[in-house]
Amino acid sequence: MHRIIRALLISLSICAPALAQRYIGEVDVAADNRMIPVRVSGATAELQALALQAFGVHGRYHVVPGGAGYVFDIRFSPAGAGQVRVDISRGPSGSPVASEVASGSSQRSAFLAAADAAVAKTNGLGLRGFFTSRLVFIGERTGHQEIYTSDVLFGDVTQVTRDRAIAMTPRWSPDGERILYTSYFRSGFPDIFEIDLGGYQRTTFVSFKGTNSGAHFSPDGRQVAMVLSGEGEPEIYVCNAYGRGVSRRTYSDTVKASPCWSPDGTRLIFAMSPGPQLYVMPAAGGTPERVTYGVAKYCAEPDWSRADPNKVIFTMKVDDNYQIGVLDLSTRHGEQVSKAPFDGVEACWLPDGRHAVYTARTATTSRVCILDTVTGKSTPISPASFGPALQANVWSR
């Protein structure tokens, strides 16, 4: 038992940096030519609040106070049950740019679809919207680590588990219908569980001797990469989508953590000690190749962009803080993209390949934030009143 606990603590030391004592708030940036000044409004109080929140977190846009000097005027209005209309005009001439009606299961979800349509029509960089994305995350509002889901602006929050046990690293299936996560719920040891969101039925995915953690679906949903320690130190394994056919991929006396698939499913990236540093290897097996040199002494928690196969977001140590970095695999150049006075960890790409959600942490709490990796703008999306929220993972169509 002591060996199991020691292995888990070593593995988690890669994934859980020390906490800094800072206040978590917005990290704003001065508007520049990389940001489009816009005026946004809603015909109802709910739509007005959502419009200001959505375009306030998006780093491509600068919401102009008072509406002066804007390039686009973006207006949202109800268009029927579960429908929202977005009208876009060019300012100050007022010439029409686009008008579209978006549908959803509620006015809120219809607004998020309409906001994505507005981003597609106005960003000028070919970015797709991210507002219709969904989050799964760990929340501690009950005093225990439980699984929750929400929309990307932290609305429609739903508590999924009530285990009253340690839970970690929830991850979506590609179809958005299942969640894999690690919990001590059943055996008192870290096992991997699967939840079917259709009926909230939970099953044990894998439960081997030692630690079972870090489960991550492949992009096609047919395989799962994970970390198991039953044969000694934590190693990377791959199995099928039902937890069977488990096959070992790494062989060394060093700790591994946080496996993540390439967009085409042919490679895996993960963190490995010493350091740790980031390594890439064929998903079918082979020799891991280190991809972080001269970036930082600590590089961990990688997430591979689905929008750009050369971009990986990760956690890096900068002086006494932990910040978010982006690695370009084509050049092996990595740079710090968050500039917060608090620790930034556990980043996950949003579907536009520019923004990410991440955990902002202090010694007393944690909040989920949206980060613009181009400007460094960071905005909390989980309210302080919710309590600690962390380890958010993104699902998008």
Global structural class: mainly beta
CATH topology of the largest domain: Neuraminidase
The share of residues in extended strands comes to 35-45%
Q: Major sheet: size, sense and barrel closure?
A: 5 strands, mixed
Mean pLDDT: 92
**Oligomer class:** single chain
E-strand count: 29
Low-confidence stretches: 1-20
How many structural domains are formed by the residues? Answer: 2
Q: Radius of gyration over alpha carbons?
A: 21 Å
Shape: globular
Q: Kindly report how far apart the N and C termini lie.
A: 42 Å
CATH superfamily of the largest domain: TolB, C-terminal domain
Helix content: 10-25%
Name the CATH class of the largest domain. Answer: Mainly Beta
What topology, given as strand order, has the largest sheet?
2-1-3-4-5
Question: Helical element count?
Answer: 3
- From the coordinates shown, what is the CATH architecture of the largest domain? 6 Propeller
Topology:
Layout lengths: L1 H14 L20 E7 L2 H13 L3 E3 L8 E7 L4 E8 L4 E9 L3 H16 L11 E6 L6 E6 L6 E2 L7 E6 L5 E6 L7 E6 L4 E6 L5 E6 L5 E6 L6 E6 L6 E2 L7 E6 L5 E6 L4 E6 L6 E2 L8 E6 L6 E8 L2 E8 L4 E4 L6 E7 L5 E7 L4 E7 L5 E3 L8 E7 L2
Parallel strand pairs: 1-2, 1-3
Antiparallel strand pairs: 3-4, 4-5, 6-7, 6-29, 7-8, 9-10, 10-11, 11-12, 13-14, 14-15, 15-16, 17-18, 18-19, 19-20, 21-22, 22-23, 23-24, 25-26, 26-27, 27-28
